[in-house]
Amino acid sequence: MNEQLRFPAEWETQSAILIAWPHADTDWADRLADVEETYIALVAAITRFQPVLIIVADDDLEAYADARLRSNRIDMERVRFVTAQYDDTWLRDSGPITLRRADGGFRLLDFRFTGWGGKFEASLDDQLVGVLHGQGLFANAELQSIPFALEGGGIETDGEGTLLTTWQCLHERHPDRDRASLSADMATWLAQDRVLWLDHGYLEGDDTDAHIDTLARFASPDSIVYQACDDSTDSHHAELQAMGNELAALRTTAGQPYRLFPLPWARPVIDEGRRLAASYANYLILNGAVLMPAYGDEADNAARDVLAQAYPDREIVQVPCRSLIWQNGSLHCITMQLPAGVLAA
């Protein structure tokens, strides 16, 4: 690991959560009213525990979002707005990946965001980290632009030098690269000692080519929460079973197997003939809490119980996310945590 840099785990203390408010020029236009209700519920949940930083496209959108939040009795002392242009609201993939420097400062990594391999227009989102940095939003933070396509949802770190990712996603983005060279580059950029790869696991309706944050998440340096499928008739069963076997074969840096927490499987969610990617692994860790996506399914409470076992020192809060999976993402996908100390006053 680079001793001058460290990639903090999501469960470490945060200064805020970064989101972008949906509007009529994003892909949410057709179902804007529904998704706004999810964003209001999300902000309400976040502000119980810490601040939220909301990107808005202009002053009118800020005034509108502010009014919607106030009418829902949100603690506006914990809400801050910043103006920037964006194509869509998937901040996990277009927002900054933040490393801590040994001198107490930060390095913001600005990887290329290509709309998940050119599937969608993303030119504004690709500029977002630089725009926010240029506004003086971050304290004692240098910007490193890296001409390499990588999304925050495609990587998981344990905060101690181990990165977890999927071969499908990185191979789709960089088909001419081999695993060894990808591992070496990511370890260098992200200050990691090793990269663990999964070859199995996918969700129907997923645009990301198997982002790790829909499949498997570190809960601590020695434990992993993952999306399982116990329905042998489901099209995901074989792949997620194989992924579970891969996770069971992984070892910690101490040579021990990881403690594994399998999440229950929601019933298929079909919208206009299309299956949507309803994963419970797409949860968000806060200071003192875990926000989990709820889909109005009988498995919601069972997923909550698994997360309570994996995160015994945190409150588990359900956020309704059925509207999000219409656009093939969920709770973690629309958020990015900012480590403690990185925000300017």
UniProtKB/TrEMBL annotation:
<protein>
    <submittedName>
        <fullName>Agmatine deiminase family protein</fullName>
    </submittedName>
</protein>
<dbReference type="Pfam" id="PF04371">
    <property type="entry name" value="PAD_porph"/>
</dbReference>
<keyword id="KW-0378">Hydrolase</keyword>
<dbReference type="InterPro" id="IPR007466">
    <property type="entry name" value="Peptidyl-Arg-deiminase_porph"/>
</dbReference>
